[in-house]
Design the sequence.
């Protein structure tokens, strides 16, 4: 019988559970609600129940389950200790030990969800074939992960890859959700991009398609920019400037082979990627300049893939 | 008989060769000139000769030599391939293989000199006891190294830890030796600090002790600042701002336990360290904020120590 593992991505709303064969194929997946009540104490039992049920359904015996990988939306240390996961209501405990115990001693490996997603993109996504990678996720916030030698860089408090909080903006800087001013997230997130566009509209008399769209979204801005709407283009160019420059800084630190851009904002595709790469070329140290740029390809499944890669990657 | 290794730091002018016992003690050291003529082809034979002579002198038999570590002033890949070391006149070749062959098969490990110095500071210097470290070297230029899990981060082209080339200055930015504008090196190096002071003197009428010193040095600026010379203080504060902010960016990428400040400029001591740390505290993401700051302690020996650490660290 084929050997399998589970790759689990715990989100604030749902838990995604993927069943992988050891040749990296996602053969089945399911989603269960994340029950955050009672300090998140139902989450791990719910996951165990789902895993046990799937093993029975698929007639997989215990000795064919090589392990369970799990991504958590919060900081987690190298040894699997969750530090304080407010998104799930969890305090401090070792999630690897606990889940392993609940599953009768199965190997469990855990990581931060953004870092695990970076591992997923390295293993089977946009960064496939590379072992030194940086993932930059442009979504509601800006996150990411750093992979060196095919392994997640966790950092001393599990806070490596917190790319959204690189100081980036010096003038006219907005306050970030973290409390600091001028973080990359303030201009690189979907929310930040919309805010920047609104600021630009308020500041000028420049005609723009965006003026006709009530509550325009990040996608509207990119659509307008692609149609050469001058104001929208300026907003996108400013975004690409800050991203390219920050990534040049990251490259001077870890010198990656490939930079993968993911998250909802990355749906703007090659149009955005090329602009980021141009700015990167402008600001990157020559010895780091040949880094490739790629779009993430696993979308919302990156977390499941990366979690599985913790076991079989 | 005690086991030993050599830690070698190849500089543009001299080669420093340290003899270490495997309990990390530097028991002897010597310096030979770096003969760069003939495409640097004498450098490795000179090193071999010095090693052989030292083994004879100390009556150390071959089987008690556990290995030779070597730091090179240029980019070098994980497998020991020197890419193009203009400082030594070297082209592309595997220095580990070549030196090992010349020494009759002894284990040889090589690294970039700045990265190797970071390893030295981690092993026996200012970062002792930590395994996730960033070294920032403020000298003629700004260099550094990144250590994760006690190992050097090399990067895909050996260009990891090129901290001096992080984009840092946006306004009134100077051109860096690398050709880019606004690199951290343009304000953080000894040369950069003196230039910034000259600019500040030219721009204002502010009285300053520096006006009375012809060709003042970086040390003069720090001395004046320590005596509360307003203009000198402003120059130091600006330096500390750029360094603290750039280090906050580095911390968002690798989340180190400790940041070690070295190089000639770091002789300004705790006065400078505290100012950098204050700015770091201002710009660092909360989960990375508890990084410790320390001064490098090995000085010019860091390279020898780090090279030895490649073998016995």
Sequence:
């Amino acid at each position: 019988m084929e050997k399998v593992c589970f790759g689990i991505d715990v989100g604030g709303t749902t838990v995604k559970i993927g069943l992988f064969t050891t040749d990296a194929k996602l053969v089945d997946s399911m989603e269960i609600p994340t029950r955050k009540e009672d300090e998140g104490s139902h989450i791990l039992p719910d996951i165990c129940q789902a895993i046990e049920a799937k093993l029975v359904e698929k007639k997989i015996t215990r000795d064919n389950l090589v392990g369970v990988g799990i991504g958590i939306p919060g900081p987690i240390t190298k040894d699997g200790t969750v530090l304080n996961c407010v998104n799930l209501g969890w305090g401090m405990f070792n999630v690897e030990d606990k889940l392993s115990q609940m599953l009768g001693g199965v190997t469990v490996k855990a990581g931060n969800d953004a870092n695990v997603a970076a591992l997923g993109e390295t293993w089977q996504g946009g960064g496939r074939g590379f072992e030194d990678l940086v993932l930059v996720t442009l979504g509601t916030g800006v996150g990411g992960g750093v992979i060196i030698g095919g392994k997640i860089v966790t950092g001393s408090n599990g806070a490596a890859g917190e790319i959204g909080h690189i100081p980036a903006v010096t003038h006219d800087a907005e306050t970030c959700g973290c409390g600091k001013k001028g973080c990359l997230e303030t201009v690189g997130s979907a929310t930040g991009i919309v805010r920047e566009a609104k600021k630009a509209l308020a500041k000028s008399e420049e005609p723009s398609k965006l003026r006709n769209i009530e509550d325009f979204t990040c996608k509207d801005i990119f659509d307008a920019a692609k149609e050469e709407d001058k104001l929208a283009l300026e907003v996108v160019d400013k975004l690409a400037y800050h991203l390219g420059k920050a990534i040049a800084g990251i490259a001077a630190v870890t010198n990656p082979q490939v930079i993968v851009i993911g998250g909802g904002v990355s749906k703007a595709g090659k149009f955005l990627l090329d602009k980021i790469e141009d700015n990167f070329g402008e600001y990157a140290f020559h010895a780091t300049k040949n880094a490739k740029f790629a779009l993430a390809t696993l979308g919302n499944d990156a977390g499941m893939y990366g979690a599985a890669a913790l076991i079989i990657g």
About this structure: The two ends of chain B are 20 Å apart (CA to CA). Chain B has a mean pLDDT of 96.
